[in-house]
Every structure is written in C-alpha cells, then in structure tokens.
Amino acid sequence: MQRNVAWIHGNQAKAGKPIHVTLNATAIAVLTKQIGKHPKAVFSYKGKPITQVNTKAWYKALKRAGIEDFRWHELRHTWASWVAQNGVSLNVIQEMGAWESAEMVRRYAHLAPEQFSQHARVVDNVLNSTNLAQSE
C-alpha cells in the first residue's frame, strides 16, 4: 500500500502473467478501511475470507441493483472507456490494463476525439509557422 500498487498473480490472471495494478486514492481508501478486519485476507464476511465473488449474494445484489447480464470483463472495459474519454493515451491504457497488444486497446480510440483534435491542431501550427515564414 505504501507504493499504491497491487499485484494479480499469474495463476489468477487470464493470460497467466502477473499484472501490476496502480491504485488510485479511492482504492487505497477502500483497502485502508479493511485493515484489521481479518488477520490475512483483505476482504472477509462473518470472519471468513472471501475467496469467490460469483455467489448467491452477488447475484442477489446484481438483481437488486437492476443489473442484468453482468460479466466481470465489463469492469475493465468501463475503466478503459472512462480513462480514454478523459485523455489518457492508448499506450498508457494498454500498460495499465495489461493488454498484450495495441490492437486490443485501439477499440477505445474513438472515445478520445478531443485527444485526437489536439494532435490534429499540430498541423495548423506547422502550416501557420510556414505561412508566416513565406510571407516575410
């Protein structure tokens, strides 16, 4: 927690490789609240470690929230969409999201039109500086 980093071990990851997860202030606050609740596990229920999340309680909570057809992967997709929409570059999204290829991350490119507009304006700057130089 001092480094604001969590690790997903390779045997728990889809690709079989460990994943480095940078934790934001919200995640650190959630984890900090868990300190002392269980001697080993971060999350527990009635004194026992939570080792599985797809339980009857989970499905009941989804139903109460009106969420249908939920897949865990959608959380990763939502995260990538949010950060792309807020100007995080695709190479940073790839690294933080642990995608192996840039191709997988390119699907989020359309969510960052302002970021691309910013780069398109570079051409305006080049043309303007060239026109100024030619008119002198």
From TrEMBL:
Q: Does the keyword Endoplasmic reticulum apply?
A: no
- A Pfam family reported for this protein in Swiss-Prot or TrEMBL: Phage_integrase
InterPro entries, per database record: DNA_brk_join_enz, Integrase-like_cat_sf, Integrase_catalytic, Tyrosine_recombinase_XerCD
Q: Which CDD domains match?
A: INT_Rci_Hp1_C
Q: Which SUPFAM superfamilies match?
A: DNA breaking-rejoining enzymes (SSF56349)
Q: Which UniProt keywords apply?
A: DNA integration, DNA recombination
Gene Ontology molecular function: any one:
DNA binding
Q: Which GO terms describe its biological process?
A: DNA integration; DNA recombination
Domain Tyr recombinase positions: 1-121
Keyword Methyltransferase: yes or no?
no
Identification of the protein by name:
Phage integrase family protein
What is the organism of origin for this protein? Nitrosomonas communis
